[in-house]
Amino acid sequence: MRRLPPLIGLRTFEAAARHLSFKRAAHELHVTPTAVSHQVRQLEEAIGVSLFERRTRQVLLTAAGQVLLPVLRDGFDSFARVIDGLSRTPRRTVVTLSATPAFAAKWLVPRIEAFRQTRPDIDLTLLATLEAVDLGAGVADLALRYGPGPYPDLVAETLTVDRFAPVASPRLGIKKARDLQSATLLHFDWYRRDPRNPTWRRWMKIAGMDGIDARAGLRFSDETHAIQATVAGAGIALHSLLLVSDDLAQGTLEVPFGPELEGFSLHLVRGRDRPLSEPIEAVQTWLRAQFTAASQ
Questions:
Q1: Model confidence at 90: pLDDT above 70
Q2: How far is CA 37 from the centre of its chain?
Q3: Where are any strands of DSSP class E within 81-217?
Q4: Which pTM value belongs to this model?
Q5: To 5 degrees, how large is the angle CA 66–CA 70–CA 74?
Q6: Are 144 and 99 in contact (CB under 8 A)?
Q7: Are 43 and 13 a contacting pair, CB within 8 Å?
């Protein structure tokens, strides 16, 4: 453990020795010359040596004072540089965005690096969950909610209305609706039961197709796994065109035929009583821009 005299005494001595004046040191430290003299005297008593030769209207450094001054001066200069550097370091901000696991994996993750490039000062955290997190309690700053709404006690805006269509790997060679008779249907379980959910049963009714068991095939509890199975060529699925937009653009998936089903709306929501900071607004603006660009 270091045995050092009080810091205030060392700081006072350094100022007085640098100016060779108790009066000028007092002005720098915003104290009285008497206080400077008192602190220097206490320091001398603590270390057992005289640091100043006191003359009429003048003070000079003793040999001990000449040894101590450069050590303290360089040390305080180093402190000042480091502290100034720390204070100039940009303060990082964390913004937490909640979304479903499928939307986080298929849509947000591929785009998050582009956001980081534009706002490196914001650490965007993705909270992937099917549960509606408590935005009022600050569990997340923003959330993407997929459904019919409404969202009481939340500020909500509609980003887009989703659409669903039959999607398959081009490798399967599915071209016409009648090809469904020999194809494997892929399904995933909707978290919320709703008669408006885009399912194969609803699609076939709208498409006017019969003679096909709309419940047969492979079923997944997770939407992301169903998309992965579709890309792998395991069968044909009724997918969100929003979630598979990148796969469609890359040609790993295709929409061989219609019709399309209208899904639910995707809403951007935040707590009504939570403050809207600049970083949160920046994330909101970025999300709006992404959907605006996608619709053009």
A1: no
A2: 53
A3: 93-99, 122-128, 142-147, 154-167, 185-188
A4: 0.67
A5: 165
A6: yes
A7: yes
